[in-house]
Amino acid sequence: MRIYLDNAATTPLSEEVIEVMVDCLRDLYGNPSSIHADGRQARAAIEKARKTVANYLNASIGEIFFTSGGTESNNMALKCAVRDLGVTRIISSPIEHHCVLHTLESLEKQGVEVVLLPVDQRGRVSISALEKTIQQGDKKTLVSLMHANNEIGTLLPLHRVSQICEQYGAYLHSDTVQTTGHFPIDVEKTRIHFLSGSAHKFHGAKGCGFIYINGDAMLKPFIDGGSQERNMRGGTENIAGIIGLAKAFELANDHMEHRRQHISDVRQYFIDQLQENLEDIQFNGDYDGDSLYTVLSVSFPQSPKSDLLLLNLDIMGISASGGSACSSGAEAGSHVLSAIGTDPKRKTIRFSFSHNNTKAEIDQVVAKLKTVVTTKQLVG
Ligand SMILES: Cc1ncc(COP(=O)(O)O)c(C=O)c1O
Known about the structure:
Elements: E1 3-4, H1 15-27, H2 37-57, E2 64-67, H3 70-85, E3 89-92, H4 98-109, E4 113-116, H5 127-135, E5 141-144, H6 158-167, E6 171-174, E7 194-198, E8 209-213, H7 228-231, H8 239-254, H9 256-277, E9 282-284, E10 295-300, H10 304-307, H11 309-315, E11 318-319, H12 335-339, E12 347-352, H13 359-374
Helix pairs in contact: 1-8, 2-8, 3-4, 9-13
Bound molecules: pyridoxal-5'-phosphate (PLP).
Pyridoxal-5'-phosphate is lined by residues 69-71, 74, 97, 99, 146, 150, 175, 177-178, 198, 209, 325.
């Protein structure tokens, strides 16, 4: 049996999610835009899913729109805020996901001012720099900061950031792809204009996500077409993906506390075992402070063995990742690791956990890591 420690890249589907999706694929084949009974049945299922997502976020039903995932939701928030709300300046950070950073690059080419705030060695965004920057000039501003970093796990003090944005009249977008379903988010308590979620990060299917758009910052469609998603996103809906997303979100929220406890225990056990069994290990990000409990970024000392660590782990049946999924197998060039000043000569591996992982698996991983780092006859 392989050991899967790459849950920040994607999570395996829950059995319950597979069941509702298969039922949906079989039974809800009507086009939700059709007015006959089959269409109405499919439409009702989507609206029920929307209600589920809205309820857990304490949002209104009319503020949730299903998309193809985190990338689309983030693109939509940023590009449509510029197009529809007159935003001319975006304040963000250098450690955002590429779907945000590359969107910012293209908006900058169109004349939008982009300011990237400094981050410290743990990947914490400078809140004082945010406060200072947000007060400068009189441009309509959008702050876009990720709730948790997918490579190193560092968490943003989202509530504090939202208070600052409110105080200075800025819009707030947060890429919450790594935190929806893992941390409680209440948009009544924490005022955010746009947030994004992706089903495959909380045991739903790939290719399906959502965007929350606060009713006071309504956007126009990002994808033009039919009147789907209340005229906000053209294209026949991915019904099974949406139903699966809602089921996965329900399970993630209902079991959040005990999953969180279990995953945190497994992660802490991994930290302890690594420190006990391997030499010169470093942990990246705010790993013992405000961090995503699902992610542990570990740097190994430079050696010919460590260069092929990820490959050898893979051969031994362990799935982990370099920086992030997009750079799996080759973390060289991770913009996040270089922004926080990680020594590029060290080998960094991101291990990321779910409630399916156990301490027994950690024992096996640590034993194998020891072998990989110290044995001669492995690849490399
Ligand atoms: C922080 C973050 N934002 C956005 C995305 C993109 O989400 P999706 O894969 O649903 O497009 C990811 C996925 O890796 C992510 O980790």
